[in-house]
Write a sequence for this structure.
């Protein structure tokens, strides 16, 4: 672990955003000198980034949130993922390091159409900035285009040995194109081309339909009390 001292706090219980009726608590890293190297170490221990904050679920009565990552050099496309790539072969993407007003406009459309009943509604520029941007680790933005029209953005942290997928959003009119899946596949492709080892996908939550898709990217690894293990050999967890 990095030699810097870190302070870890725990939040008060609050309503869980993923499993109705549950209470959630978070371990929160309180560190004024966070950097990419320290964050990648914390990422391998199951922490995630939200804005400048680093957190990890620590719920006394629930273990449903499982850290999941894809080892990109052994990742194999499924038939469905091959079909997604084939159906979107006319789209193109590029990597940029600055956010734009067009990014936020697309984000707002996505939240209004897809998550109007969730905690991210209503969207605002300040919410976007606080959620996705970071002072000590400027994120990477993968822009997805149909001709010259921006239709998707994947916000990703580019680290020494890995990419960490923070959030992806897309034009609601392209819902049938499986752009959420496409942008994960693009991140796996980008990570492999850059010589990274992993793409971190956040938390797999089997009990939440919107958060249970990450097992589709195989092989994948799940963080357990014994360390990272082949997830396909583990039974799904629930509360």
């Amino acid at each position: 672990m990095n030699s810097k001292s870190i302070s870890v706090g725990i939040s008060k219980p609050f309503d869980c955003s993923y499993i109705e009726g549950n209470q959630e608590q978070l371990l929160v890293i309180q560190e004024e000198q966070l950097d990419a190297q320290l964050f990648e170490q914390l990422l391998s221990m199951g922490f995630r980034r939200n804005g400048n904050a680093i957190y990890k679920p620590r719920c006394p009565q629930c273990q449903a949130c499982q850290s999941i990552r894809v080892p990109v050099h052994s990742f194999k496309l499924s038939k469905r993922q091959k079909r997604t790539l084939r159906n979107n072969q006319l789209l193109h993407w590029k990597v940029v390091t600055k956010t734009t007003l067009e990014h936020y406009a697309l984000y707002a459309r996505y939240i209004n159409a897809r998550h109007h009943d969730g905690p991210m509604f209503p969207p605002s520029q300040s919410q976007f900035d606080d959620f996705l941007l970071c002072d000590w680790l400027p994120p990477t933005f993968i822009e997805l285009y149909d001709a010259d029209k921006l239709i998707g953005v994947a916000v990703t942290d580019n680290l020494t040995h890995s990419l960490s997928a923070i959030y992806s959003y897309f034009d609601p009119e392209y819902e049938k194109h499986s752009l959420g899946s496409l942008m994960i596949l693009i991140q796996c492709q980008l990570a492999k081309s850059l010589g990274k080892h992993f793409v971190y996908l956040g938390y797999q939550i089997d009990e939440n339909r919107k958060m249970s898709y990450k097992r589709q990217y195989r092989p994948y690894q799940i963080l357990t009390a014994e360390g990272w293990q082949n997830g396909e050999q583990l039974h799904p967890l629930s509360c």
DSSP finds five helices and 14 strands in the chain. Residues 179-193 form the longest helix (15 residues).
